[in-house]
Write a structure and sequence with these properties.
The protein has one domain: TPP-binding domain (Rossmann fold), CATH 3.40.50. The chain is built from 9 helices and 10 strands. The protein has helices at residues 6-10, 45-50, 52-69, 76-86, 101-105, 131-141, 191-203, 217-229, 255-264; strands at 15-19, 90-95, 111-112, 115-122, 128-130, 178-182, 206-210, 233-236, 249-252, 274-275.
Length: 281
């Protein structure tokens, strides 16, 4: 039996898209759980708020990492999704990524489920400011610090062993503690973003998951909701995911290569891409 194509499964349905870290790897941003990824232990929200030393450690690593992450550029997946949005082929885009690359590529309507790393929030007065402004202040307080070398981690920080000499900047409005405007591990996604995402699932013709292992419930819950509604669920990801058993079609391939191939030759049957027949329904 011929392997089905995305067109076989999705037809002329408009997609709701959920993206994960596997979308940004082609832009040079590493992911947490992709094939070959090392074990990583990101800072939790509880660690961040508990002590000044924890915040110092985070901001030292993040300052060095931001010097590199801010130079990341959107890749083919981002650009294809922008084309689809302009053609009215999408009903929405939910991203678990915090890099802002969907917006930089020109996508107009994005739910940044886990926030944006290019914004900073004060934990006391809740003032929001651009990351670029904080970066300039940290550079002035810590001349030359951003040239330090370390392994780049998925959240835009760099692994550094010694951070005790780093000087942290406070909120310019109230002197409070600053945090990137992202959802840390151990922190809840804001309820309004969750509600907006569920509303998109309720209105969707199909859900397409790109580059997410769905290991955390913040994304998996939308796959479960789509499956419960009975709409097609397509997962394109290298490696297994927690949503595989719920998928109408699972394609083991890169996001950029798959979407580019679909755009250029929509009737292509993707013979070189591993399609899990157990997930075809």
């Amino acid at each position: 039996m011929d392997q089905p194509t995305l067109d076989d499964v999705l037809g002329d349905r408009r997609w709701l898209v959920l993206t994960g870290a596997g979308v940004s790897t082609d832009s040079g941003i590493p992911d947490y759980r992709g094939p070959g990824s090392p074990v990583r232990t990101p800072m939790t929200y509880q660690e961040f708020v508990r002590t000044p030393e924890g915040r110092q450690r985070y901001w030292a690593r993040a300052h060095v990492g931001w010097s590199r992450m801010r130079r990341a550029e959107p890749n083919a997946t981002h650009h294809v999704l922008v084309e689809m949005e302009r053609q009215d082929s999408l009903t929405g885009l939910i991203t678990q990524n915090v890099d802002g690359l969907h917006t930089r590529a020109g996508h107009r309507d994005v739910i940044d489920l886990h926030g944006r790393i290019d914004r900073v929030i004060c934990l006391q007065c809740r003032d929001l400011t651009p990351r670029s402004a904080l970066h300039a202040r940290l550079s002035a307080l810590n001349p030359g610090y951003e040239t330090r070398v370390g392994e780049v981690a998925p959240d835009g920080d760099v692994v550094l062993d010694e951070t005790a000499d780093f000087r942290v900047a406070d909120c310019t409005s109230c002197g409070g503690d600053l945090k990137p405007d992202v959802v840390f591990f151990g922190e809840n996604v804001p309820k309004d973003r969750v509600a907006r995402s569920y509303a998109l699932v309720e209105e969707a013709d199909a859900l397409v998951v790109l580059g997410s292992s769905l290991q955390v419930m913040s994304g998996l819950r939308f796959v479960r909701a789509a499956h419960k509604r009975g709409i097609p669920v397509v997962i394109i990801n290298r490696g297994s995911t927690r949503g595989d058993e719920l998928a109408t079609l699972k394609i083991e391939a890169g996001c950029a290569e798959t979407l580019t191939l679909l755009r250029d030759t929509p009737s292509h049957r993707l013979p070189e891409m591993a399609v899990d027949p157990a997930q075809q329904r």
